[in-house]
């Protein structure tokens, strides 16, 4: 089992491409996993949180300027990038609004896994992720209203409840166990990235399967939507690189790269449904989910080799 986990981690890029293809050709495989996506994300957060302890978290909290910069980059330049790429690729209409909404979203829950694989600061990534996500129900609607003039209705109770169960509880549990039983859990440090990679593949399948019909249904225009998603994703890496203006710590820069470039796509659908907006507005986020889950392992692989 250990060899299999290591093999998956080492070849995650190829597994991602294969799983993406399976999800498109056999969407029912992903449909079976869709109801479990919240549980899979929580499990991923728990596994990653076993890699650092309370002392690491305290070190992160001593540098509030790092978190402030993460908030600014995630919600500032990326929101404007979403607006501009939306107009560039779609002009106006639901897809343009969806691309704008995509730019305003918080960091994707899976970002600490990619930071771990790229040998960045995982504790910093987890704190960034938790804070950015916790503030999203309040920040995203304000940004979207400012950029589009459209008021988003926020299912606040539902979103906060889900975020607590998916992000906060697993993180606290994982860090607490690592802190109390450090010797035991540190013995298995080499396995956490592999287990996380396996969960990552299941999440990818759960995302693609339910959206396969929609993706294929766009025909050739799907490539335009994918190009818009890829453009925003690449812009995210460039924006993340600006963190080098305040830190020369390579691990911190890596953390910013994935914190800024990855977006929590699932929140978009919740906002759109609660607001009674056209469902097509959530389409760019669905495409972005697939794109970022393919590009992130590639970037992580490259970064891990340059250490």
Report on this model:
- It is a single chain.
- The chain has 307 residues and is mainly alpha-helical.
- The chain has a single domain, classed as Na+/H+ antiporter like fold (Up-down Bundle).
- Helices cover 80% and strands 0% of the residues.
- The chain is built from 17 helices and no strands.
- Helix 14 runs antiparallel to helix 15.
- The longest helix has 29 residues.
- The relative contact order is 0.20.
Give a quick set of tags describing it.
single chain, Na+/H+ antiporter like fold, 17 helices
Look at the structure and give the CATH class: Mainly Alpha
CATH-level-2 architecture: Up-down Bundle
What's the alpha carbon Rg, rounded to whole Å?
A: 18 Å
End-to-end distance: 27 Å
Number of domains: 1
Helix content: over 70%
Relative strand content: under 5%
| Morphology | globular
Largest sheet, strands/sense/barrel: none
**Series of secondary-structure elements, N-terminal to C-terminal:** HHHHHHHHHHHHHHHHH
CATH topology: Na+/H+ antiporter like fold
What's the short version?
By secondary structure, this protein is mainly α.
Write the layout of secondary structure elements.
Blueprint: H1 2-10, H2 12-25, H3 27-33, H4 37-49, H5 54-61, H6 64-75, H7 77-90, H8 94-104, H9 111-117, H10 122-148, H11 156-180, H12 182-186, H13 189-217, H14 221-241, H15 250-261, H16 266-275, H17 283-305
Helix pairs in contact: 1-13, 2-3, 2-13, 2-17, 3-13, 4-11, 4-13, 6-10, 7-8, 7-14, 8-10, 8-17, 9-10, 9-15, 10-11, 10-15, 13-17, 14-15, 14-17
């Amino acid at each position: 089992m250990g060899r299999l986990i290591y093999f998956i981690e080492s070849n995650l890029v190829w597994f991602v491409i294969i799983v993406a293809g399976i999800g498109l050709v056999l969407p029912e495989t992903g449909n079976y996993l869709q109801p479990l996506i919240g549980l899979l994300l929580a499990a991923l957060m728990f596994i990653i949180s076993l890699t650092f302890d309370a002392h690491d978290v305290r070190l992160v909290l001593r540098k509030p300027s790092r978190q402030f910069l993460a908030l600014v980059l995630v919600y500032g330049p990326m929101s404007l990038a979403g607006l501009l790429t939306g107009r560039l690729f779609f002009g106006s209409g639901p897809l343009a609004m969806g691309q704008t909404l995509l730019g305003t979203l918080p960091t994707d829950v899976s970002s600490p896994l990619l930071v771990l694989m790229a040998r960045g600061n995982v504790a910093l990534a987890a704190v960034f992720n938790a804070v950015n996500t916790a503030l999203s129900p309040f920040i995203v609607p304000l940004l979207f209203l400012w950029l589009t003039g459209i008021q988003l209705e926020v299912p606040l109770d539902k979103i906060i409840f889900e975020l607590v169960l998916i992000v906060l509880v697993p993180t606290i549990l994982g860090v607490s166990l690592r802190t109390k039983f450090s010797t035991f859990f540190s013995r298995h440090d080499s396995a956490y990235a592999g287990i996380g990679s396996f969960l990552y593949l299941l999440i990818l399948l759960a995302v693609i399967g339910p959206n396969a019909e929609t993706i294929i249904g766009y025909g050739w225009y799907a490539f335009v939507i994918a190009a818009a998603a890829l453009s925003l994703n690449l812009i995210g890496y460039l924006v993340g690189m600006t963190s080098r203006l305040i830190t020369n710590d390579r691990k911190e820069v890596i953390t910013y790269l994935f914190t800024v470039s990855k977006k929590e796509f699932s929140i978009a659908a919740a906002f759109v449904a609660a607001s009674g907006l056209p469902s097509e507005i959530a389409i760019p986020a669905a495409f972005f989910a697939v794109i970022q889950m393919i590009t992130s392992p590639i970037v992580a692989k490259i970064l891990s080799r340059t250490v």
